[in-house]
Write a structure and sequence with these properties.
It is built from 10 helices and 6 strands, in the order βαβαβαβαβαβααααα. It has 201 residues and is an alpha/beta fold. It has a 6-stranded parallel beta sheet with strand order 2-1-3-4-5-6, sandwiched between helices. Strand 1, helix 1 and strand 2 form a beta-alpha-beta unit. The longest helix is centred in the C-terminal third of the chain and has 15 residues. The radius of gyration is 17 Å and the shape is globular.
């Protein structure tokens, strides 16, 4: 039996997946949650074999959640789900050490197959996502700069970013200035838009 932790923001899809997996004899959903902050706590308690995580979770996004889960519970394999092909997603999934990346509109049988393969130690990537990655530009940003910009994209102030990342406000401002220079942005908002369109966020 493969124990699954499901983290999906949309209640309708989350409920549909729980119902669907309930009819598959070798799959058992041990938790179904709607935010990244709940994933690690639930995983440590429920001990799933596979975590199926929406990359667009509110708060802590799927990539950050996958990275945290990999560090704290390495025996749990993560499959990330996305609703569209976006350049950079595959690179970010690999950086988070996820075992799989699939589109939400994949067929039910393909999703079950991906979960089973990941549970046995394989890696699974949707072909459309792999091809979209071939034409993507390499991010010029460091992992820390991406963390800073990701928090900024969710409306965090320099002070809030400093508090969340245990940095000084001056260091955060330096990071934001460096990000603007690297991506050729006029300001923080412009940098966020450039990074999102390139798939770096």
């Amino acid at each position: 039996m493969i124990r699954i932790l499901l983290a999906e923001r949309a209640p309708l899809l989350r409920g549909a997946l729980v119902a669907f997996f309930g009819g598959v004899k070798d799959l058992d959903v041990v938790g179904a949650i709607d935010s990244g902050e709940q994933v690690l706590r639930t995983a440590l308690y429920r001990r799933p074999d596979v975590a199926l995580i929406d990359i667009g979770l509110p708060g802590l996004d799927g990539f950050a959640t996958a990275r945290e889960l990999r560090e704290e519970l390495p025996e749990c394999r993560t499959v990330l789900m996305t609703s569209r092909c976006r350049t950079g997603d595959l690179r970010r999934a690999a950086a988070a050490r996820a075992a799989g990346l699939v589109l939400k509109d994949t067929s039910p049988s393909e999703l079950v197959d991906a979960i089973r393969r990941v549970a046995t130690g394989e890696r699974v990537v949707d072909p459309d996502l792999a091809f979209s990655e071939l034409g993507s530009a390499e991010s010029p940003l460091t992992e820390r700069e991406i963390e800073v910009l990701s928090l900024a994209s969710r409306g965090a102030s320099a002070a809030q970013i400093a508090e969340d990342l245990f940095l000084t406000i001056g260091t955060v401002r330096n990071h934001l200035s460096r990000i603007n220079r690297k991506v050729g942005a006029r300001n923080r908002i412009h940098a966020i838009r450039i990074a999102e369109e390139a798939g770096w966020l």
